[in-house]
Amino acid sequence: MRNKGHIIFCILMMCMLFACTKNFQDINTDQSGITEEEMNIDFKNLQIPLGIIQQGIYFNYDFGKGKNWPFQMMQNLNADMFSGYMHDYKPLNGGSSNSDYNLQDGWNGTNWGYTYAYIFPQIKKLEDSTKLQYPTIHALAKILKVEVMHRISDYYGPIVYSSFGDPSGEFMPDTQQEAYYTFFDDLDIAVDLLAEHLSTESTAPDIATMDIILDGKYQSWIKFANSLRMRLAIRIAMADPQKARTEFVKALKDPYGVFELANEQVAVSTRDSYQNPLGEINRVWNEAFMNASMESILNGYEDPRREVFFEPCPDDVSIIGENGEKKVVNLKGKYKGIRQGTCFSHLLYASHSKIYVNQTTDAILMTAAEVWFLRAEAALRGWTGENVEACYRQGVNVSFQQWRAMGDVDDYLDSDRTGADYIDAFDPNNNIEARCKVSPRWLETASNEEKLEKIITQKWLAVFPEGCEAWAEQRRTGYPRLFPVRFNNSRNGSIDTEIMIRRLNFPAELADTDPEQYQALVRVLGGEDSAGARLWWDTGRNF
Length: 543
Prior knowledge:
Serine Threonine Protein Phosphatase 5, Tetratricopeptide repeat, two-stranded antiparallel sheet
């Protein structure tokens, strides 16, 4: 974060957030400040909430108190880092914070708090107000509801979902399994409504000006719903194999299809008022750099996407050696990342590779490449008759096309290169041998476990820079193999260094401000509210 004043501001805002959202009954009160008069002008009753919801997925909703610092705490200082994608070069909290598992409750409760305070109430209102008069918009609300809330569940586990907005005021949490089953039900409703509209050519609002994540076509929203169903089905592959297979095949067989082409993606557009919050964090605050795990794999693979994802180090760095002599560290033109959990206490790592994102970069949520890797894994599991290698290779091809990678994709797919050892530019105690030992080359004779590792490692590259999805899949499968933290300062040793962090704790404030709600969440979690506790879909095995 930019400075001491900024940190104090964030703390004050967190206090204000939980002061006004201490109970779910309070959360269900509209806090957007939108008047009824504004809502009744030219479909503003649809456009305004749709805008809030779409901007709230990759959070950049302007609620009048700043737009970018919430995202930093909601995602960038946890999922983006835990996924192995990024790291802040600044020694926040004196160098010990989320990076070394000294988890900061004020940061990690933000995703829960802001989603329930600002985004979910708009989803619920839009659902209720469109069910009869605007069924196609009702369908969009359902899809967005699943997209927003599966991310919250994948952070924390149990969530308040099916009972949110319950007039009885119960607001009882769902287990993660119950939430996922309801996600699939909501996608069923959405696809049926949109398919009926398209088949009957019924009258429906033109969503071209309302849609900021797709192309304004209802057909594309069905593809999104089907692709999202595939993502969620794969997520529960080991927790509930039969349900997973059924849902995946349902999506694959839907006549409207799924994302397949490089230009088919879900991304929050910056063409209007939306600005990518990661771009502000990166370009203005200078706080989004390459993670050491990303360095190891991109450099080891000699991956052409490296030049698109990150910038090379701009200059060499002069430091004073142990004997007081001046020493030049040769960095210029190299791609260097920061290892997680080193508790560094200086700012030399500002010399490392920055991420490509700026304020006008569309915020990617899902790509066609991801869907091809979902299909590859489903075929590997025997759910479909598709060819595993063909889907895998197509996933890499589509990712190269999407990023306009300047390299021969066939040469890349024939490569036996593996991850590179990490050599810290300033402290050799942080050096570590490469963990990623698989190459891009597909081996039909390999075990299913090795094939899955290849699939997920390539999906991890293709999903970049969307840390929420990458972190969820890395936890589910253990791939790619990331560098462990050097120092583990987790509370009471609750996080295993090698197994790594498994979830975020529920917001600590809930235990004080709404103990009944907190206890209900812990009860359906089925264990201690610990960052080392596995979620329902995180079984610790892949086959």
